Amino acid sequence: MGYWSVYFITKLGLFYSGFIGFHWLPNLAFAITLVLPLASTRYRLIRTVLAMPVGLTLLYHDSWLPPISRILSQKDALTGFGNDYLLELLGRFVNLWILAALGLLLVVYLLLRRRLRFATLAFLGILSAPIASLQGANVAQTVSSRPALVDGNVAISQIKQEPTAQLEAFYAAEQGKRVGFPSIADSTAPFDVVFLHVCSLSWDDMDYVGESNVTLLNRFDVVFRRFNTAASYSGPGVLRLFHSNCGQLPHRKLYEVDASQCNLFRNFEAAGFEVRGLLNHDGHFDQFTDMVQKSSGLGVKLDDNPLRTRNDAQF
Fold first, then answer.
1. Of 107, 142, 177, which closes a domain?
2. Three-class SS of residue 218?
3. Residue 36 belongs to some domain of the structure
4. Where do the DSSP E strands lie in the chain?
5. 216/274 same-domain check
6. The domain containing residue 83 runs over which residues?
7. Confidence at residue 107, expressed as pLDDT on a 0 to 100 scale
8. Any residues with CB less than 8 A from the CB of 231 and at least 6 apart, and which?
9. Is residue 137 located within the same domain as residue 168?
10. pLDDT at res. 310
11. Which residue stretches of the chain have pLDDT < 50?
12. Residues 6 or more apart whose Cβ sits within 8 Å of residue 16
């Protein structure tokens, strides 16, 4: 098997360290194909050449990376990334400790390959993967079957539902949620309501870097810190903000314009507020400006910002 033993041992190390998954059956079939004896040097060379793209594909399949179809569907958005941002993303995927461990494994292989059968170690590791996965599944099932506690004393049976059923039940409960806005026509104390929407930033992030008490935010009368928009990126995040006076929606329904009851800023307008919007970037990436003005149902033109940059979306 040669250096392919290092390939499988590395993947198994990543699997047991929790960095990737491991589909043991296709990996076993791939390993058997690589270890089959071939008398002709030509055939061995052809097998090696064909095995390289197969190995890369299998590694991607074992990883936690999104499916290729997902990446292709977002190709227009990905081409909008600048080189600096791409380098930053690459830096997030490179783990120096893993690279060092891989280098050490190569040194050990070169020193001991004539004394140890690394192919045997690779096969034993592959065959251990389904056993480890089965044990993990049994532990998860045991934990989920334990009775839940109410107030730390009374045990009740945990409702067993498939994840899809739980999600549907959640959305069904959210449908009836509405928050109304009283008119400010008779208000004697004028005030502003400011929404600061920052992409990919949470209160936990602010706490982690020690910036949870920002001077600007300390000047606000009310700051909400315990909430969840249930979105992982700026586009869906800002659409959930626009819809936040109603309950949560499935992702696909975020892009269906609803300018009546379930539009936060339309409700502010109806209550007597003047709604304004401003971006700190050009809004070209992922057609963010169009999404804010059209898909969200904001209904107002965004103010021009001469200091805007090509940074990622913030609203």
1. 142
2. helix
3. yes
4. 148-150, 154-156
5. yes
6. 4-142
7. 93
8. 237, 239, 240
9. no
10. 47
11. 139-140, 143-144, 146-160, 310-315
12. 132
Q: Which amino acid, one-letter code, is at 252?
A: R
In a domain, 151, yes or no: no
Tokens for 167? Answer: 């999600």
At 31, is the secondary structure helix, strand, or coil? helix
The total number of residues written for the chain in this structure: 315
Both tokens assigned to 198: 């920052």
Which residues 6+ apart lie within 8 Å of 273 measured at CB? 184, 193
Asked whether the beta carbons of 286 and 314 are under 8 A apart, the reply is no
Q: Are residues 203 and 288 in the same domain?
A: yes
Per-residue pLDDT, 219: 84
Structure tokens at 207: 């706490």
Q: Same domain, yes or no, for 207 and 122?
A: no
Domains identified in the chain, total number: 2
- At 255 the pLDDT is 77
314's CB contacts (< 8 A; 6+ apart) are 197, 198, 199, 234, 279, 280, 281
- CA quadruple 219, 221, 227, 228: dihedral positive or negative? negative
Q: Are strands 148-150 and 154-156 parallel, antiparallel or unpaired?
A: antiparallel
125 with 213, same domain: the answer is no
In degrees, to the nearest 5, what angle opens at C-alpha 309 toward C-alphas 304 and 311?
Answer: 125
Q: Write down the pLDDT at residue 135.
A: 66
